[in-house]
Design the sequence.
């Protein structure tokens, strides 16, 4: 399975079961990021904010993706959605691998949801705070869920991201086994070692 980070919280997932895109952002919605022009069999969005729900940036193939997709209803804040609304966690299963994309999670999942998030091969989670859980909360969630691979998203760098959210380093300072990739793609297999995988944003790709 290929995990391709398109910037912010947008990922393309490719496997023998097809291609899907998660949380595409609208052109101009995230400072410093290039416009998206993606192709997939399926688009999934955690919520409808401009930086996560831009389905129009993805050309659909017309094919049917064979991923198993489970959805968990959560919130975009720690006040039962009263500030920013609801958020959907997507759990994808394909080729014997399970990957969860947490969207703009702003609170801890319920105990039942935590149980359903156990045993993940990869966890794509926001770490920047303000709009989502912050670095410390993300670290606590990782310690509780124990996914094999963690891929941070929704953070700020010198060249992209919202000013109000934190830098990636705030999260990495709490992590062990950090692996930095030159590109924006992670090849996930059953043998991929445990790690926090830092993918590199590549403008225009």
Sequence:
């Amino acid at each position: 399975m290929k995990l391709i980070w398109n910037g912010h919280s947008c990922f393309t997932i490719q496997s023998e079961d097809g291609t899907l895109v998660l949380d595409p952002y609208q052109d101009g919605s995230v400072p410093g990021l290039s416009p998206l022009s993606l192709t997939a069999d399926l688009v999934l969005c955690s919520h409808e904010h401009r930086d996560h729900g831009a389905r129009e940036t993805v050309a659909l193939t017309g094919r049917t993706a064979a991923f198993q997709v489970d959805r968990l209803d959560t919130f975009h804040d720690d006040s039962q959605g009263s500030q920013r609304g609801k958020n959907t966690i997507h759990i994808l299963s394909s080729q014997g691998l399970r990957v969860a994309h947490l969207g703009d999670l702003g609170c801890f999942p319920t105990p039942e949801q935590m149980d359903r998030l156990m045993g993940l091969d990869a966890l794509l989670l926001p770490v920047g705070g303000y709009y989502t859980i912050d670095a410390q909360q993300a670290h606590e969630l990782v310690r509780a869920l124990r996914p094999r691979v963690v891929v941070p998203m929704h953070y700020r760098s010198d060249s992209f991201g919202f000013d109000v959210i934190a830098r990636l380093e705030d999260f990495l300072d709490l992590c062990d086994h950090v692996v930095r990739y030159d590109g924006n793609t992670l090849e996930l297999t059953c043998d991929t070692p445990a790690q926090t995988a830092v993918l590199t944003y590549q403008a225009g790709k």
Summary: Residues 155 and 168 are 6 Å apart (CA to CA). The mean pLDDT is 93.
